[in-house]
Design a protein that fits this description.
249 residues, alpha+beta, 2 domains, 3-stranded antiparallel sheet, 5 helices, 26% helix, 18% strand, elongated
């Protein structure tokens, strides 16, 4: 290998093998900074001829016709102790063709995320955080939906719960009893004031339902915790009859 000499030579000597051995070891190269490791699936999962799934009906006041959301699942390692059911594809069908473009976009993107594998539960929070600039709406049970995309996210969340990918935090018996006690106290206050109760008292076992199919007083306001229109004023304090949240503690 040729070496270019850029300075004037003043002296020289012949290097021997002993001289080379006495030289200090070269400094180790600095370690490369850590980089993010991209994890790829080690096998390609082909779509089976038949998949199992469920179809959910979404009726929004923003649409004239209902949306039908179908989520199909793939069963991995069937018949073994490691059998898993995971979402594989999403379809949305409706007579309303006004929003056909973004509906097709959602189905393709969500299906691609499902097929990629890994933790797909983040889709729920991302979709539920989408707000319609024209305003949201209340679905059955007084649950506030900021947009139709958010309600589709709620459908995906419901499906992921049904196959075990998302688990709801358990409501203790004491919390259920407290919610039931507050509902009873509110309805007794209405009766003492000569007003008719807005809804019958639900049994304790039904209080885990987050508002769907549950009736609340028409004067109730939106709860900032469970996003259900179930907040009433009791003893001068705003209290949610659905989740038991109270600003007074």
């Amino acid at each position: 290998m040729a070496i270019k000499i850029s300075k004037k030579i003043k002296s020289y000597s012949v290097a021997t093998p002993d001289d080379k051995a006495a030289l200090p070891a070269p400094a180790a190269a600095p370690a490369a900074p850590p980089t993010a490791e991209i994890i790829q699936m080690h096998e390609r999962v082909e779509r089976p001829e038949a998949l199992i799934g469920a179809t959910y009906k979404v009726k929004s006041p923003l649409f004239e016709h209902a949306l039908y959301v179908t989520i199909n699942d793939i069963v991995l390692n069937p018949g073994t102790e490691h059998e898993l059911r995971r979402p594989f594809e999403l379809f949305i069908n409706s007579k309303n063709m006004e929003h056909f473009q973004w509906i097709v976009a959602i189905t393709r993107i969500v299906s691609a995320v499902f097929r990629k594998g890994g933790d797909v539960t983040f889709l729920v929070e991302e979709m539920k955080a989408v707000f319609d600039p024209r305003g949201g709406y209340f679905k059955a049970g007084g649950v506030y939906m900021p947009s139709i995309v958010a309600e589709i996210g709620c459908v995906i969340e419901e499906h992921l719960k049904s196959i075990g990918l998302i688990r709801d935090p358990e409501i203790s018996d004491a919390q259920r009893a407290l919610i039931n006690e507050k509902r009873v106290a509110y309805e007794q206050a209405l009766k003492r004031n000569g007003e008719s109760a807005a809804a019958a008292v639900l049994p304790v076992a039904d209080l885990a339902v987050t508002g769907e199919g549950t009736s609340f007083p028409p004067t109730a306001t939106l709860c900032g915790k469970c996003h259900t229109k179930a907040v009433v004023v009791m003893d001068g304090c705003q209290t949610c009859l659905n989740c038991g949240y109270s600003k007074c503690g």
